Amino acid sequence: MSARVLTRACAVLGVVAACTSPARAQVANWPSERPPRPLAARDVRFPDYEIKTLANGLRIVAVPHHEQPAVSLRLLVAAGGGQDPVNTPGVANLTASLLDQGTKSRSAQAIATAIDNLGGALGVGAGTDLTFVNAVVLKEDFDFVLDLVADVARNPAFSPEEIDRQRQQLLSGLQVSYEDPEYIAGVVFDRLVYGFHPYGRPASGTPESIPAITRDDLASFHAKYFAPNNAILAIVGDVTPEEAFAGAERAFGSWNRAEVSPSSFGDPPSPTRRVVVVDRPGAVQTEIRVGHLGVPRKNPDYMALNLAIKILGGEGANRLHRVLRSERGLTYGASADFETLQQSGDFVAETNTRTETTGEALRLIVDEFWRLRRERVSRTELEGAQAYLAGSFPLTIETPSAIALQVLNALFYGLDLAELEDFPERVSAVTPADVQRVAERYLKPDRLSIVLVGDADRFVSQLKGAGFGEYERVALADLDLDAADLKRSSRPRPDAPGVDAAAPRTSAGGDARGRGLVERAIAASGGVDRLRAVSTVRAVATTTLNTPQGEVAVETVTYIQYPDRYRVEAELPAGTVVQVFAGDQAWLRDPAGVRDAPRQMRNDLRASVNRELVPLLLRVHDGAAQARALPEDARRPPSVEITSPGAEPITLRFDPDSGRVVIQEYHVQGPDGSREVVAVEFSDYRDVEGVQVPFSAVLSRQGSVVMERDLKAFEVNVKLDPALFTKPS
What we know:
Blueprint: H1 3-13, H2 22-25, E1 50-53, E2 59-64, E3 70-77, H3 91-98, H4 108-117, E4 121-126, E5 131-138, H5 142-154, H6 160-177, H7 181-194, H8 215-225, E6 231-237, H9 241-252, E7 274-279, E8 285-293, H10 302-313, H11 319-327, E9 334-340, E10 345-354, H12 358-374, H13 379-392, H14 400-412, H15 418-421, H16 423-428, H17 432-442, E11 449-454, H18 456-463, E12 472-475, H19 499-502, H20 512-525, H21 528-533, E13 536-547, E14 550-561, E15 565-572, E16 575-582, E17 585-590, E18 593-596, H22 599-610, H23 613-621, E19 626-629, E20 639-643, E21 650-654, E22 661-669, E23 675-688, E24 691-701, E25 704-716
């Protein structure tokens, strides 16, 4: 099995970060004391392209790429969270999420079915500066997808039902985010750096702003910014420029121009030293963010700055990781990023550390900012960062979608497209003197914005000794990004950010019909008493993954100890991979060793636990979750949407005769940031000690089957060794 196929297989199982290729699994004495030298960068040539502007102002970029019979479309509209109304952040994000949820001539179901029937993909989303619509199809469906993308971008229906559904999903997502210290640290850092500039507001909105957004707000945003003269379309793939331009003219030529006034934000505030402590009592780690205002993407010093920040904490060098992890053992990882937008940007160093080492880690991070400014970087460090940046560039133009993204980024930020042709040469041209110059000019270690999220009582006493005796302390429950002092005012607000504001506007248990469907499913599954009596599970299964190279069978063993212990063992070609979620901890083991799970994997495991059918049904029965019956439809079985604090909405569909759950649906984030529908179809129910268990499950993503699971054994209330859920030392 190839490394690429293996990675995809692991992704379906939820063990992406646990996978290693067979070659790495066999390397002795890993990790070695010194990394191998990078291979020489291979020659790379950016594909030819042509650009045309239609009469209505829409810019078209055509990039022929005939290696595969596929075409990728990317439409960018120059409006995102930065253009949100002042008092209602989240408008752009909600607008984007509704683009593919129905147009004036197509329902959301019709759009999803159409793209699924073609074997293609459609994605929508919004960032700080832009909104996007992406699509990929085979060449034979090029004309159809042009019409579909045009319809989605130009004619969204903004139906009240879909608005409510998307609004609820956004609020549920915020509930989860407000429990995540990494998210809190990020949004507070943005607020410190950019102040009340639009870049300082969370593009996803707030628990207070999202419920206040009306249909008129969405329609107004769309009418104001969605215009051909405010958009760029890239067409990359198995088409000629002539075909691309003719198709774009046909599908988008009738789109009327509009007067789009350029956004005038004013400048963000100048960097000012400010230390904010967000108190999360009981936290065992402190999330740390350190940085300040940077530069926009078009700044002529971008390349040298990019390399400077990579030396500080990026790929190919990373002083922060070396000092904090390798030398001091204060963290599992540390990094620095260089965020660039149209009008500004920022530098940020980030890590987390044990509560008792918060002050030490913070002092070391700030010292590295000073060192980068005061001391010239070595030629070796610079060459490492350059080798990574130049060597990874070919990967960014391997596929039609990746090529489209590169071209659109250049056009969107007003860059010279010729820069794509000589990217490796421009990387190699930067010298240590260049890095020193930009570090001295742009880095301001005496004016850093600092955010610490953790158990304040246990670490604030360390701050004075680390040189940060003056700080502001804000309780997480009182955090208000709209307030100058970041503290909640006296007006009525939820006790915890997002909890009350995100709750569905129904009774505590949802509506009567929805609750009735769930109660019937509980009875059909064995009844409340039998379900509640299940304390542990051991399941052995064969999981078949559908990959481009064919089917791959994986043997898995799953251990569950309710309510929050979950372990999966998978036998992969590279060796045994183990994933564990235990309360707030998540870790994995593979042939390379044992380590903490990355944040995304940890979130995926937590979501998997929340979707377990038995506790999910019981949460509704106990009133801890709400079940809202979905509108009746002769084309689908009776259905409910289940919502609970800190979890994404889940849809359950029931067999109308037996009442058992036959389909579970939920959303996940796709590779391009869009939301994708996952459906799990359950069948072959069998009695296991009075509990009805589905022995067959088929998982589909965006309508395509990606995994089939067949149980070979299923045991309940077995004795499980606590060591199964304990991370080895």
